[in-house]
Sequence to fold (305 residues):
Amino acid sequence: MSDERGQPAIPALRMPRHLVEAAAQDRHDRRRAWIGRLPAIVDSLATRWDLTVGDPFQPGGEGSWTAPARGADGDDLVLKVGWTHDEALHEPDGLRLWAGSGAVLLVDGWVEGETSALLMERARPGVELGQALPEVEQDEVVAALLRRMWVPPPAGHPFRPLSAMCELWAQEYEEDPPAAMDPGLGRAGLELWRGLPAQTLPQDERVLLTDLHGGNILSALREPWLVIDPKPYVGDPCYDPLQHLFNCRERVRADPVGMTHRMADLCQVDRDRFRLWLFARWVVESAWTGPGAPDLVEVARALAP
Fold:
């Protein structure tokens, strides 16, 4: 939208803190240059969809500018303007597939160059699951959503195989393996990390969310809880609860086997296979989490096959 002189109606766009921090730490200038273009991009999208756009949610995400918006007919919406990156490649395709069943509804989408924009329903009251319930109760909500949203991949789907993501992570681990990880344990974890996706039969594959945790589930009126920010891949459902458990690291460290059995049973997946996935994920994750990630190494040792 523009004022009477034809100037942008959002001359000083407010920025979410996490996006600014991530851009400042980026080795390349592309994301910072994109942020410089954001006021014009948001203004153009507001005109395209006839929106009144508010200030962004804080602290926000690292790859997108997301804010409440009102449609011309008064609809309560969210505008998400993302810097196109690999992780979020098929978010709109996943939202279309789930069509509001367990996730926020996608109203419209637009992609051009480095920008991917989504117009979605707003979850009200929109409290994050991680702030609303104790972790033990979060387990049950996460598991129920996963079981419901694990649908067979439709014919002609665009989603990438889970093996592609696992291979990328494995290569990053190999570039800088953590000193605290026993080399033999690391090799065993990487072998499983690469091998488990290939062991999944096509008829057992499902569309995965891959990044479901208490910060990506919001309280809502249409349903008690709605998923936001899915990162869809196709593969083994045993993989999908791992991100939630990564956010519950103290409980996992206190009782690795018990937490493995609890989450596997809640998600109705095989305990033994889920334990292998959890072991492999903790090995791979140890390369990126803190100096040596001692708690991850400790849990990996406890779960090692």
User: Anything to note?
Assistant: Residues 129-303 form a domain with the Aminoglycoside 3'-phosphotransferase; Chain: A, domain 2 fold (CATH 3.90.1200.10).
